[in-house]
Write a structure and sequence with these properties.
By secondary structure, this protein is an alpha+beta fold. The chain contains four helices and six strands.
Amino acid sequence: MKNLKQFSRALLEDGGATFNLVSGEHEFKGYAYSIFGHEKIHDNVSVLSEVEHAVKKFVGEKGVELYSVHNHLGGWFDKGKLFLDITNVESDLRKAIEQGIRNGQEAIHDFQSGKDIRLPKGQGAGTMTQKASYLNMKIDELVSNHKNQ
């Protein structure tokens, strides 16, 4: 993958893709999580020209944030909708799960298996200590479940 046209084509053909605009990297190891507040959902996007337009517009809006070797353009289709975001890749499963939960994500992506890891919502009520304990308990549970698959 060398450019946004190829990224857009990969979204349609593969159902999802991740691309670093600075390095050109598009094959990753580890786990992807989104940066909070840098996501966009598009309805009724199904042909290449529509996908290319959505990607180009997103990159135009988020260009400053995407101009980094640490931030990647991520995209995938789910239930007929196109999701675009700024993604970080983390090699440590525990850290990726923690960031995903803290960022309010529904899931993080495991590049090795090609599957998503569904995340629980963070604890809304309680003291800071209770919230931290709940977070650590859920992370331990998810890490254990993922390793036993």
